[in-house]
Amino acid sequence: MELEDINTVAVLGAGNMGHGIAEVAAMAGYDVNMRDIEEEFVQDGYESIEWSLDKLAEKDRLSRDEADAAVERVTPLVDMEEAVADADFVIEAVPEQMEIKKDVYGELESVAPDHAIFATNTSSLSISELAEVTERPERFCGMHFFNPPVRMQLVEVISGEQTAEETLELTEDLAEEFEKTPVRVHKDSPGFIVNRILVPLMNEACWLVNEDEATIAAVDSTTKYGMGLPMGSFELGDQVGNDVSYHVLEYMHEVLGEAYEPAPLLEEKVRNEELGKKTGKGFYDYE
Length: 287
Ligand code: CAA
Description:
Layout (H helix, E strand, L loop, with lengths): L7 E5 L3 H12 L3 E5 L3 H20 L5 H9 L1 E4 L2 H5 L4 E4 L5 H14 L5 E4 L6 H5 L8 E5 L9 E6 L5 H13 L3 E5 L8 H17 L5 H11 L6 H8 L1 H15 L7 H8 L16
Parallel strand pairs: 1-2, 1-4, 2-3, 4-5, 5-6, 7-8
Antiparallel strand pairs: 6-7
Helix pairs in contact: 1-2, 2-3, 8-10, 8-11
The structure holds acetoacetyl-coenzyme A.
The site of acetoacetyl-coenzyme A has 18 residues, from helix 2, helix 8 and helix 10.
């Protein structure tokens, strides 16, 4: 398949990442089927796209006409078969848990067209293990966007053990069509490149607070004003979602060892469903 053969992109999951990826694909001119398991979830995702495009138009990052055209290219759906029947490229962005993703791929494989490429937006999980659930491991790779997808330039393109070179090249070309900068990750190891660096940083910030070495505000001031990151560590954790960082760490802890043990403060946030901006409360309050 060539880049010109890609007309319809299906995005599975309409959460923080899913709706953001759907928005990026629609802005690039693709027809997008955005699917989630409940009407309420797809509707929330659709409204978030409307909000975001409106914001971008308000800030002159695109015109009103372009924003309107992009939103019209997105079809919110619940039915899996309907969402993928005419898809040339499927990007999966469902919760960061191996078993959930495997279930989705099992269902997807039975209804997606044979030629379609499957790309997972996983932040850390093994591409090769996910690909095994499908009958197309050579047409399966990682395509990892960053939060918020519409504003973040990077896309990690990750090879699984059996991913074909053509799949990786096509995925990189598609990322460029999305006006992103792809970076090839040749080794399928937990956290790939960015999260291998970034998530331990956010975890270490939690350990500092747990051990009473510093306050949340002090840590965030240093990461933002001393290290030059655009957000403080805790601010970023709330943006990414504390559940997402926690699941990434749990997996890194399991596969890579002790150094990645999630800090109790992060665990507590997840247990209390204080997941960050998306729940209105995380390390900071957003209500
Ligand atoms: N769509 C449209 N507008 C958005 C938006 C979105 N999705 N998200 C935020 N905005 C808006 C804000 O509402 C705000 O609007 P107001 O000024 O009206 O309040 C505006 O954007 C802020 O944008 P600015 O350009 O003025 O501000 P900025 O220069 O700080 O840029 C940012 C914002 C690009 C998000 C920047 O803070 C940034 O780069 N933050 C770091 C994000 C990051 O590191 N992400 C990666 C996380 S790791 C990850 O995602 C991997 C993983 O798998 C866990």
